[in-house]
Design brief:
The chain has a domain of 209 residues. It is mainly β. It is built from 2 helices and 19 strands. The strands form 2 sheets. The protein has a 16-stranded mixed beta sheet that branches. The relative contact order is 0.16.
Length: 329
C-alpha cells in the first residue's frame, strides 16, 4: 500500500512538471532572439548514443537462493530475496546555463526463508522489509563549451520496522552527496573528477570519484562513474542497447526500537538490456550475480568495524531485475 501511494504521488508530480513545461513553451521571450555572436555557448550533460535519461519507472528485483550463517545462527538457506523499486527524476529547471533535477525514489527488499533466526535483531530483519525512501537533487552547471560542474545531494530514510510497516526514525536518516568538475570535448567524450560521501557498501565512506562517458563510434561506448559503477555499451540501434559491467549498492538501516543498525552492501557484476517499447516507454532488464560486501550489525550510527556486534556470512547469488521506464524526449 505504501508503494502504491508513493507511485501515485510521483505520477502526479510528473504530470505537473509536464504541464509547467508546456506553459513555458507558450511564452514568447524576445530576449531569446539576440544576436548569435553575443550568445555564450554551453556544453550539454550527455554524449551521443548514451542510455536515455529515466524520468520515472517501476521494477522488481529477485535474488535466487543462497546460504547464510553467523556466530549465533547456524548455517541455513535463504530461499529468495527481493522487492519493488520505484525511481523518478523530475526536471525542475532547464536553461542552457543550468539544469536542475530532483528525484523521489523507493527501494524495498524482503528476505524469504523458512528459518527463524535465534538472534533477535536478525529475526527482525528476516521478518520485515528493508526499505529506503529517498530524495535527491542534481545540479548540472555548464561553465562554457568545455567545462562543467555536477553536484548531487541525497537524503534517505532507511528503516526496518517490527510489524512490516513504514516507520520514521531520526536515526534512519542518512545524508550524502558528491561534487565534480569536468571537461567535455565535443559530443563524444566527457570527463569529470570529484569527491563523494556514499553508503554504497553499507558504511559511510568519503571517496574520490571519476566520471567518464565516451562514445567510440555508432556501436560502442562507455558509461562510468568510478567506483560506483562502470559499463561498456553496445548500441544495436538508437532504440536498443546492451551494457556489461558492475554496480555497487548499499545502505545503512535503522532497526526500529532496537538501537542497532544493519549495514548492507553488495557488488553486482551484470548485463543490462535497454529497449524502447513504444513512444517514450522503455524496457530495462538486467541479470547478474550479487556478491555480498557487507551484511553486518553495528551498535552506533556510522559505526565502523570496531562497533560491529554481529558479522553475517551472507552468501552470493544470481539475480535479475526487470522494469518499465518512461524516459525524457
Amino acid at each position: 500500500m505504501k508503494a502504491f501511494f508513493l507511485l501515485l504521488t510521483l505520477i502526479l508530480w510528473s504530470s505537473l512538471s509536464f504541464a509547467q513545461d508546456t506553459t513555458n513553451n507558450d511564452v514568447f521571450d524576445p530576449s531569446q532572439f539576440e544576436d548569435g555572436a553575443n550568445v555564450t555557448k554551453f556544453c550539454t550533460q550527455k554524449v551521443l548514443n548514451q542510455t536515455p535519461t529515466k524520468m520515472y519507472g517501476i521494477g522488481y528485483e529477485h535474488n535466487l537462493s543462497f546460504s547464510s550463517s553467523n556466530s549465533i545462527d547456524p548455517s541455513h538457506t535463504i530461499n529468495s530475496m527481493g522487492g519493488l523499486r520505484i525511481t523518478t527524476s523530475f526536471l525542475a529547471y532547464s536553461k542552457n546555463n543550468l539544469i536542475l533535477n530532483f528525484g523521489l525514489n523507493y527501494w524495498s527488499s524482503q528476505i524469504h526463508s523458512e528459518f527463524t533466526p535465534l538472534n533477535k535483531s536478525m529475526n527482525q530483519i528476516y521478518s520485515n522489509s528493508m526499505s529506503t525512501e529517498s530524495f535527491n537533487l542534481t545540479v548540472f552547471k555548464p561553465l562554457n563549451e568545455k567545462h562543467f560542474i555536477i553536484a548531487q545531494a541525497n537524503l534517505d530514510v532507511s528503516t526496518i520496522d517490527n510489524d512490516n510497516s513504514w516507520a520514521y526514525s531520526k536515526s534512519g536518516l542518512s545524508v550524502y552527496g558528491s561534487v565534480m568538475y569536468g571537461w567535455k570535448k565535443g559530443d563524444y567524450r566527457m570527463l569529470a573528477v570529484g569527491l563523494s560521501r556514499t553508503y554504497r557498501l553499507g558504511r559511510p565512506l568519503i571517496v574520490p570519484i571519476l566520471l567518464y562517458n565516451k562514445t567510440f563510434d555508432d556501436k560502442w561506448g562507455m558509461e562510468c562513474l568510478f567506483p560506483a559503477r562502470a559499463h561498456v555499451r553496445y548500441n544495436f540501434s538508437t532504440n536498443s542497447m546492451l551494457l556489461a559491467g558492475y554496480e555497487l549498492e548499499g545502505q545503512q538501516f535503522d532497526l526500529i526500537e532496537n538501537e542497532q543498525f544493519l549495514q548492507r552492501g553488495e557488488i553486482k557484476p551484470r548485463v543490462v538490456f535497454e529497449k524502447r517499447l513504444k513512444g517514450f516507454f522503455w524496457l530495462s532488464a538486467q541479470a547478474g550475480y550479487r556478491i555480498n560486501g557487507r551484511f553486518n550489525l553495528v551498535n552506533k550510527y556510522d559505526g565502523q568495524e570496531k562497533n560491529e556486534v554481529l558479522k553475517n556470512n551472507f552468501g552470493n547469488a544470481p539475480y535479475f531485475n526487470i522494469g518499465i521506464n518512461f524516459v525524457s524526449p
